[in-house]
């Protein structure tokens, strides 16, 4: 058996032929990649350790790693397997290989030097044989010499001499990043980007043209349908007239505008009995047809007039809605959707109207029209909401009589009353302040100085209010701008009021 021994550290190899099977016994039944001692091979191999790398049998079939056999087997090979090279894409082939267990039937056994012994082996460890070719790829050159990316790898490429040392030769460096390569890469990227933008523009133009085309097709189809319908109606009307024109008879007055120049005639006086007043007669033939067309046109005019008249059909009051933050969720969606209104349009218009009141409760009244349109009438915020905001609370007290959540001044009360005055059922700020104070008491809010203000406020007798109404300007002093009364009693006040002071409405 021949032993082909290689030394990776020196780059040398040696072929040794051993005929004595006793020296080879330690190698038998060993697997590939196993490490064996070289002591049995001879004195020159003492202390050496070898690794079994492979081999060939006497017929030349190679050993294959992983095949647990000491003889030859036939396997189906495909791309990527050792001992097989694919000749055609996707092709598989069944061929014979030798198992990975060493046996006496081998002709050559390949050994790799792992550990060197005490003595050198001539032709294996006593000399150095450098590699003929250096690395060719840029990353491998950097790895070999420990270079960084900023270093120029062209200065470190391995050159070899040719023609007895007169000339040198070096490989072409692969995957070398040069400015020209980067510029070419940017160029192709720019071309790709321009193509993408042009494609997007073409797609948008095509989509727009497609929309226009569909619109044109719908218009043309609608025009064709209308034309056919009009033509069909004309034919139907003509056939109806031809079929029933002799059967059309009406009793109509002679003053009918559609019968100008066609005065009604009593063709059959007996049928007109009971209606034979002056100017009446039985209409037939062409006059009857003209009368039908005139009546039809009047009915269409009435329907158009009724459709064009838009009236208010309902009012929807929304009280718990936040300004600038309205959404289609309840309570807005169910309340508006019940009348068939466009909820999204309402939310958009309401948020635009209350953009300066974000976070505040802004009630409104929605006037629903007969054509499904609407009008939004904004109201002032709820009195309770204004009071809660004044004391920095989210809600009122659960026990208004005993639990006080905060207090406000009489000036703040007047400010809130002035704000709510347009929506209250009064025209007097004093009355409005009393109404707002009642809401404050119900919410557990105390008004500082209210008792002192109430003592200074002049009460209005019921007789004065009934006589002059709730207005302030028409009341006599001390309640209004009118002349003072002689006596403050109810009866005396009623008698002392001059007649010219009484308004005409009373």
Report on the structure:
The chain is of the alpha+beta class. The protein has four domains: 2-115, no CATH class; 182-308, no CATH class; 312-378, 2-Layer Sandwich (Ribosomal protein L11, N-terminal domain); 383-501, Orthogonal Bundle (Arc Repressor Mutant, subunit A), CATH 1.10.10.250. It contains twelve helices and 16 strands. It has helices spanning 21-24, 138-145, 179-244, 286-308, 332-337, 343-353, 383-390, 410-420, 429-442, 450-456, 462-468, 490-496, and strands at 2-7, 12-17, 35-37, 49-57, 72-77, 93-98, 106-115, 160-162, 167-169, 249-253, 280-284, 312-318, 364-369, 374-378, 406-409, 445-448. The strands form six sheets. The protein has a five-stranded mixed sheet, with no helix packed on it. The radius of gyration is 56 Å and the shape is elongated. It comes from Symbiodinium pilosum. Residues 321-374 form the Large ribosomal subunit protein uL11 N-terminal domain. One of its GO terms (molecular function) is structural constituent of ribosome. Residues 477-506 are annotated as: Disordered.
Helix and strand arrangement:
Blueprint: E1 2-7, E2 12-17, H1 21-24, E3 35-37, E4 49-57, E5 72-77, E6 93-98, E7 106-115, H2 138-145, E8 160-162, E9 167-169, H3 179-244, E10 249-253, E11 280-284, H4 286-308, E12 312-318, H5 332-337, H6 343-353, E13 364-369, E14 374-378, H7 383-390, E15 406-409, H8 410-420, H9 429-442, E16 445-448, H10 450-456, H11 462-468, H12 490-496
Parallel strand pairs: 1-7, 15-16
Antiparallel strand pairs: 1-2, 3-4, 4-7, 5-6, 8-9, 10-11, 12-13, 13-14
Helix pairs in contact: 8-9, 11-12
